[in-house]
Amino acid sequence: MANNIYRPIESLANDLRSGVVKSSTLAEEAIINQDRHGLGAYKTWTPDRVRLESTAADAAFEAGLDLGPLQGIPVSVKDLYGVSGYPTFAGAASQLSAKWEAEGPVVRALRQTLAPVTGKTHTVEFAFGGIGTNPHWGAPRNPWNQNRVSGGSSAGAGVSLWEGSAMLALGSDTAGSVRIPASATGTVGVKTSMGRWSVDGVVPLSPSLDTTGLLARTVADAVLGFATIDPRVHNSGFGFLAALRDISIAEIQIGVCDWFFESCDPGIAEGVKAALDELAAAGAEISSIDLPETREAADIFRGGGLAASEFAAFINTEMQPHKAELDPNVAARFEAMESIPAIDYLNRKARLVELSRSVAGRIATVDVVVGPTLPITPPTIQSVADSGEYRRQNMAILNNTMIANLLQLCAVTIPVALDAAQMPVGLMIMAPLGADERALAVALAIESRLGTATDRIGLPPILTA
After folding, report:
1. Is 54 considered catalytic here?
2. Are 44 and 79 in contact (CB under 8 A)?
3. Which residue from 85, 143, 150, 338 lies 20 to 30 Å from 61 (Cα-Cα)?
4. Whether the predicted pLDDT of 1 surpasses 80
């Protein structure tokens, strides 16, 4: 069977609409690929339901109904989102109440376009962590090196894309939970602006910071997913993609912040800098930009930020029945989370508002700010089995991504290199609050110049062995 599921969504569009390719064919490919690779991407995997939903998409095509770019395209959903007919665990040891199975606007947007849901992908328990492991359900294995983590908290999302069981993946991002697994697995991750997409129907971690987002194998695929879900995009997804392609590299002003390059593992800073050199040679205007706000925001984050207090309040109230079952790596930090005084939390929140306003003024001189998405190579699953090493690596893997959440930026990560360990390196593209289209357009222009993940870094070993 040909693997149409690895083709770009845009190129499949005409074939799906003409009947040359069926959504049911994509569903069978997804099922075969998931069985073949078995990387542990899913908490709930439902082949029969995928078949039924793909048949419905095909029937709509045959009836002349075109519901948008994702019609018939298989999509995986992080097990933090409510999806009707699926249990929601949110990474916990036991199933959450039926309340959390209700669909919010993001999932409903997919439903309305008849995109088959392939299943619910694994998440770190209650999304509280960036490594991607879960003692209750295991850790999805990274398709680039199965001994290494896939990143969290949307741990199964990027894995589902490369194993070929989905073409788009829904995730959420509170401190990097879309961008970390995207960078770690060599995929594209989109963190939307705070408030841009609804978080209704998604189990919360930190209401002050939670955002919904998506992962894809290419920026173009991500743009089509964005256009389908985003309530502000009024033209067709394909028209939106065409409009964003109008921006060329030569028109883009890129600010490079050195703070993001500090303490990078071998090959990461070098890979990002090489990509930036290529963009400069292609005509991009690249300059250094100093963002002192990053250091203070990082200090606030290391002290618990906002998420620790908000998460503790959620667990102690609505999720009290699950508290005794918490992942030890989460539970070990809980006493410190509960003991943060209210005045400290309020002071942090007020200070982050001030820092966000300050950084917004600084970055107004450029179109986007860039740096490495992750400063570290994804650690091995074995190494983070030690609780002390887990905490150290977890803080390190979140170091760069959490800035966009704390300082109210939107962001896109795209793969641009392999590091010294032959693991993917992401370039993080950050834009002001509400400038999601700009971030996507810049990412699209960069991808057009540097190539997609397959062009740039090749295929993961699971597809070449």
Report:
1. no
2. yes
3. 85
4. no
What is the rounded distance in angstroms from the CA atom of residue 141 to the CA atom of residue 380? Answer: 10
Is-catalytic flag, 288? Answer: no
The tally of CA atoms less than 13 A away on the side-chain side of residue 420 is: 9
Instruction: Give the length of the chain.
Output: 465
User: How far apart are the C-alpha atoms of 158 and 122, rounded to whole Å?
Assistant: 11
Residues ≥6 apart with Cβ < 8 Å to 455:
none
**Catalytic pick from 23, 24, 76, 153?**
153
Helix (H, G, I), strand (E, B) or coil at 69: coil
| Catalytically annotated residue among 23, 43, 76, 78 | 78
Catalytic residue among 24, 76, 172, 177: 177
Nearest to 194 by CA among 320, 356, 302: 356
Residue at token pair 């439903």: 111
Q: What is the pLDDT of residues 127-165, one digit of tens each?
A: 999 999 999 999 999 999 999 999 999 999 999 999 999
Q: Which residue has the higher pLDDT, 175 or 2?
A: 175
Structure tokens belonging to residue 196: 């841009």
Tokens 């690779």 -> residue = 37
Look at residue 235 and tell me whether its pLDDT is greater than 70: no
From CA 446, how far away is CA 159, in angstroms rounded? 23
Q: How is 179-240 classified by DSSP, letter by letter?
A: HHHHHHHT-EEEEPPTTTS--TTB--S-TTT-EEEEEESSHHHHHHHHHHH-TT--S-HHHH
Active site residue 78: yes
Distance CA 272, CA 278 (A): 10
pTM attached to this predicted model = 0.97
- What is the overall mean pLDDT for the chain? 96
Q: Cβ distance 58 to 22 under 8 Å?
A: yes
